[in-house]
Specification:
The protein has 19 helices and 30 strands. The chain is α/β, with parallel strands linked by helices. The protein has a 7-stranded mixed beta sheet with strand order 5-4-17-16-18-19-20, sandwiched between helices. Strand 24 and strand 25 form a beta hairpin. Helix 5 crosses helix 6, helix 7 crosses helix 8 and helix 13 crosses helix 14. The radius of gyration is 24 Å and the shape is globular. It starts with 9 loop residues before the first helix and ends with a helix. The chain binds 5'-O-[(S)-ethoxy(hydroxy)phosphoryl]adenosine (WTA). 5'-O-[(S)-ethoxy(hydroxy)phosphoryl]adenosine binds next to helix 11, strand 20, strand 24 and strand 25.
């Protein structure tokens, strides 16, 4: 594989950036011409941010799996596409070559067809990190079914909500999953999620842990049995053949949290998303053919979609898929994996770095990390201390560190340095990718043109024009897409993040400015957590904010009014945590719950979250104006009871 659009120097970056802004159509047509299209597009780009309506490569026909698999077969057929590292290091590694991956994807595509899945149908995937998860995702893409992967840490209730929202009729799952020392009973969670569900017709179950499961006649089938029915010699017409998709046909839905209501289904397209994940992968990480790429994310999140699967595979890369967690059996696990497979590019989250830092340098002893060439971080702001530790102890000051800022909605990286090509600056994401036009605006939507006291421009981060990987809609509710992202400021995509910009045009992301928390790099809406807490029978009202947490970045702080305690405070606290875990999932459990008798409300009944945030952060002196509060006395109670 060669990548003629790979940027090779700082001046090439500036040149590419300029061209991408001056003539985006010519620029992206140039990039897209390196891919396999069944039919060329009629028009590169048409867009407005009013409705919004964005179309990239309209009229173009393709299948993303032909670009990720078929086109590599001749030259890379026997090269590893996926190297799978099991949870238990004693278990056998699985190396899936491009040829094997192609075969398995075609087979599973046929399994889906045999089970009644058609183009456009939504297939929910709830599996652990096993190669079969990749076969399931790509098998859907092969036949034009829209996959919706749900992270294994979400509860039955969360799955039920997503199934209903996506109107999914098909599920692919595992009997169970291994994660560190825990076994997660995935199928049984799916069974709970399906109580009362009338839409789901088929559940395909892959055997991973051999825990007992209950299989419902007519609905549940075993992956292994279904695969046996389709061999590559089976003379089924169209076997393994890829469905021809429009560039704008949806590829997948991925649910993510916003500041209000339930999680929304972010929809990505087939053509633009492919170009964007590939282009950003090849450029930010400076991927060179033959290198081994290890992204530690779970495929249940966008990072796994874009940088374990679609980006690397479309580039013919070798991508590591890791089933386990960084601290099991011990805190040296990532370093073992890097050593074992001679990983060249390592991409993880600041939370993981901070957590591994806390174990000191012992877990690094005897681990050969000399294969590493590029390091990356994603998901949350990285503090300077963690950045330097990563650079020094993992990269041995010999690997560029890319700090990649992006979102589920952006499909791929947006603001990041390019490894070894553009300069790095600790805790700064630095410069935009070609095609990305960031702008900082004040609360009225005016571009910030004055520097603050520290010499930085500071504002709400927006993007002026579409890039190929931009969100197309929120599933089933286009208006929600408009109000969430395009209505805050005229003609701008609003990210929900605040940022600083320096004189070099470098950006530093400071965190969310809306009511979205970033806990260990996981996005969680405060409203979602409040709704879950309020489900508890003794809770009258609650308000949730974030607070700085050494490892997780942010922790969850809940102020809760209860009508009567069951037993002691500690018991009720546990009950509430249990409720949140059941309604959303363990990732949303509050770290701190403070029982209060009132919340700081304005006369119009609005909760003043600013005050709650400050108290949770430990700031008690400088709470700002509290005179508009209905009952200013409540503030003292909150301060005195702070946990
Ligand atoms: C945050 C993850 C600072 C940000 C890919 C964004 C970051 C949210 C960075 C999206 C970074 C992501 N520096 N903050 N390098 N990367 N974020 O949708 O607040 O799970 O809005 O996508 O994570 O989270 P999401």
């Amino acid at each position: 594989m060669s990548y003629p659009y790979q940027i090779g120097s700082l001046s090439e970056y500036h040149e590419a950036y300029r061209k991408s802004i001056e003539d985006p159509e010519a620029f992206w047509a140039g990039v897209a011409s390196n891919f396999h299209w069944r039919k060329k597009w009629d028009r590169v780009l048409s867009w407005n941010f009013k409705e919004p309506n964005v179309e990239w490569f309209a009229g173009g026909k393709l299948n993303i799996t032909e670009n990720c698999l078929d086109r590599h077969l001749e030259k890379l057929g026997d090269k590893p596409a996926i190297i799978w590292e099991p949870n238990n290091p004693e278990e056998r590694t699985r190396v899936v070559t491009y040829e094997r991956l192609h075969k398995r994807v075609c087979q599973f595509a046929q399994v889906l067809r045999n089970n009644g899945v058609k183009k456009g149908d939504r297939v929910c995937i709830y599996m652990g990190m096993v190669p079969e998860l990749a076969y399931a995702v790509l098998g859907c893409a092969r036949i034009g079914a829209v996959h919706s992967v749900i992270f294994g840490g979400f509860s039955a209730q969360s799955i039920a909500d997503r199934l209903e929202d996506a109107k999914a009729e098909f599920i692919v799952t595992c009997d169970g999953a291994y994660r560190g020392g825990k076994d997660i009973p995935l199928k049984s969670i799916i069974d709970d999620a399906l109580i009362g569900n009338k839409l789901v017709k088929k559940v395909i179950v892959y055997t991973r842990t051999r825990i007992p499961v209950s299989m419902i006649k007519g609905r549940d089938v075993w992956w292994e049995d279904e695969m046996l029915k389709v061999t590559d010699t089976l003379p089924v017409e169209g076997f393994g053949e890829a469905e021809v998709m429009d560039a704008e046909d949806p590829l997948f839905i991925l649910y993510t949290s916003g500041s209000t209501g339930k999680p929304k289904g972010v929809v990505h397209s087939s053509g633009g998303y492919m170009i964007w994940t590939n282009y950003t992968f090849v450029n930010a990480f400076q991927y060179k053919p033959g290198q081994v790429h290890f992204c530690t994310a779970d495929i249940g999140w966008i990072t796994g979609h874009s940088y374990i699967l679609y980006g690397p595979l479309s580039a013919g890369a070798t991508s590591i898929m890791f089933e386990g967690i960084p601290t099991w059996p011990d805190a040296g696990r990532f370093w073992d994996v890097i050593d074992k497979y001679k990983v060249n590019i390592f991409y993880t989250a600041p939370t993981a770095i901070r957590s591994l830092m806390s174990f000191g340098l012992d877990p690094l002893k005897g681990k050969d990390l000399s294969s590493l060439q590029v390091l990356g971080t994603v998901g949350e702001p990285i503090n300077e201390e963690a950045w330097h530790w990563y650079d020094e102890h993992i990269g041995k000051k010999n690997c560029p560190v890319v700090d990649t800022w992006w979102q589920t909605e952006t499909g791929g990286l947006m603001i990041t340095n390019l490894a070894g090509i553009t300069p790095a600056k600790p805790s700064w994401a630095t410069l935009p990718m070609p095609g990305v036009q960031p702008v900082l605006v004040d609360d009225k939507g005016e571009e910030v043109t004055e520097k603050d006291a520290d010499g930085f421009y500071k504002g709400n981060l927006c993007i002026k024009a579409p890039w190929p990987g931009i969100i197309r809609t929120t599933y089933g509710d286009h208006e929600r897409c408009r109000t969430n992202y395009f209505a805050t400021y005229d003609n701008l995509y609003f990210t929900g993040d605040g940022a600083l910009k320096d004189d070099n045009g470098f950006f530093r992301i400071t965190g969310r400015v809306d009511d979205v928390l970033n806990v260990s790099g996981h996005r969680i809406g405060t409203a979602e957590v409040e709704n879950a807490i309020n489900m508890h029978a003794s809770v009258i009202e609650s308000a949730v904010v974030g607070f700085p947490h050494d490892i997780k970045g942010q922790g969850i702080y809940a102020y809760v009014i209860v009508s009567g305690l069951r037993g002691d405070e500690a018991g009720t606290r546990q009950d509430i945590i249990q409720t949140v875990s059941r309604i959303i999932g363990p990732i949303a459990k509050p770290d701190k719950i403070q029982f209060v008798t009132g919340l700081p409300k304005t006369r119009s009944g609005k909760i003043m979250r600013r005050i709650l945030r400050k108290i949770a952060e430990g700031e008690t002196a400088n709470l700002g104006d509290t005179s508009t509060l209905l009952d200013p006395a409540v503030v003292d109670e909150l301060k005195n009871g702070k946990l």
